[in-house]
């Protein structure tokens, strides 16, 4: 189910590294090396597959932009926030 306006207002506290842009959660990442980038993207691909929820990913060498939204709901859902939290854990590793 799509998050309510009230829930969306609390997202910056729960996900401080993410921004809401055009009904999507967005985060930009910069890795130290191409190998680090692809190590992260491999983890993200596997997690996304297991969750059956696939983000939009734009990658240029060590730069990665991630966009999360639930197209069936036309907005941000709990599934997006769960994946965002998992992504944050992967980045922290």
TrEMBL record:
Entry keywords, A to Z: Lyase
UniProt GO MF annotations: 4-alpha-hydroxytetrahydrobiopterin dehydratase activity
SUPFAM superfamilies: PCD-like
Any single Gene Ontology cellular-component annotation: ascospore-type prospore
Name of the top EC class for this enzyme: lyase
Transmembrane segments: none
Keyword Lyase annotated: yes
GO biological process, one term: tetrahydrobiopterin biosynthetic process
Superkingdom, natural source: Eukaryota
Catalytic reaction equation(s): (4aS,6R)-4a-hydroxy-L-erythro-5,6,7,8-tetrahydrobiopterin = (6R)-L-erythro-6,7-dihydrobiopterin + H2O
EC number per UniProt: 4.2.1.96
Pfam families: Pterin_4a
Family note: Belongs to the pterin-4-alpha-carbinolamine dehydratase family.
Name of this chain's protein: 4a-hydroxytetrahydrobiopterin dehydratase
């Amino acid at each position: 189910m799509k998050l309510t306006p009230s829930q969306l207002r609390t997202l910056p506290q729960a996900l401080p590294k993410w921004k809401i842009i055009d009904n999507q959660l967005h985060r930009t990442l910069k890795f130290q090396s191409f190998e680090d980038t692809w190590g992260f993207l491999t983890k993200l691909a596997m997690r996304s597959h297991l969750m059956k929820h696939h983000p939009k990913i734009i990658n240029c060498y060590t730069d990665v932009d991630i966009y999360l939204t639930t197209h069936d709901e036309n907005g941000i859902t709990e599934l997006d926030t769960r994946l965002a939290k998992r992504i944050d854990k992967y980045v922290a590793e």
